[in-house]
Amino acid sequence: AAKNAGKNGYRFYEASMQETLIHKLNMERSLRAAVSNEEFLLYFQPIVYLETGLVSGFEALLRWNNPQQGLVAPGEFIPLVEESGLIVPIGKWVMRAACAFARKLTNMAYADTYVAVNVSVKQLASEDFVPMVRAALHEAAVPPTMLELEITETILMNSECLTTNIAKLKELKDMGVRIALDDFGTGYSSLTYLKQLPIDVVKIDKAFVDDLTEGGKNGPLMGSIIALAHNLGLKVVAEGVETEEQRKLLREWQCDSIQGYLISRPVPEAEVLKVCMKSKDS
Ligand code: C2E
Ligand code: MG
Ligand code: MG
Ligand code: MG
Q1: Of 21, 174, 253, 261, which one has the greatest count of Cβ atoms within 10 A?
Q2: pLDDT tens digits for range 129-158
Q3: ipTM value of the model?
Q4: CB-based burial of residue 2 (10 Å sphere; 0-12 exposed, 13-18 middle, 19+ buried)?
Q5: What are phi and psi for residue 235, nearest 5 degrees?
Q6: What are the Cα distances from residue 26, in Å, to 21, 23, 33, 111, 115?
Q7: Which residues form the EAL domain (predicted)?
Q8: Atom of ligand 1 minimally distant from the CA of 261
Q9: 279 pLDDT exceeds 70?
Q10: 28 CA distance to ligand 2 centroid (A)?
């Protein structure tokens, strides 16, 4: 019986492996067609100054409107998109769409805000990344200062061509594009690296913000990270702020801006203005 179970177990394992592979191939094929089928869209989540509550910028977050599955979140397809190299054309679409949105912001008297775009390291490492960004800005007639690129900290530090990647970021920063280190505090987060990177902003990860409680041990740690960033001339954004208590504590630790469900969820473009009006009133 044990032998049978083993055999069945093995068969089952083999079948599910095959199913996973087929699912992956199908998904890759759908994703390959998704750009030309115009199935991608951007949601925007406002980032607000802690002191004034005014909007400082918007993070562009990719959504895939799959005809079969409906709206799919990036966590479910970005890994595959990176693995298959599709991140390069899709990332280009994101950059152009984000710049088009920035163009609209200037027309709506939000010219002093910025649009933050997530960039995967594979995309950064692609040969024509810098010219692609420059062209997207030019095409939309958007000043580089309205664009922020978010790079995930640990992924950048572990990347193969770290020196070239840093040089590219520096080139963009010299053009006036802002660079943010995303998901800060989740990885091995060597603080000493911070001053070697051409960055303007540190985005503290939600996981770190979640642990903030009145009198909790993470408060002072958060405080020293924020102080250190400020000493290096960097701005600090806290991600995933959900409660009034977190907002209060972050203000005490002199965080510059916050982003999270407390202010607004990511919303489609048509709803962005409504959200801005609301955050101005509160
Ligand atoms: P991220 O860049 O760290 O983006 C923040 C994520 O946290 C977003 O998830 C956002 O919806 C979510 N979030 C914001 N505030 C709150 C909150 O208060 N509570 C909770 N529970 N969640 C909050 P989303 O949109 O699912 O994106 C997930 C990740 O996918 C992003 O993490 C980013 O790494 C990646 N991503 C999104 N768009 C793109 C893109 O265009 N290109 C690339 N390469 N990656 C992208
Ligand atoms: Mg981000
Ligand atoms: Mg993040
Ligand atoms: Mg994240």
Answers
A1: 253
A2: 999 999 999 999 999 999 999 999 877 877
A3: 0.98
A4: exposed
A5: -90, 155
A6: 9, 5, 11, 42, 33
A7: 24-280
A8: 18
A9: no
A10: 23
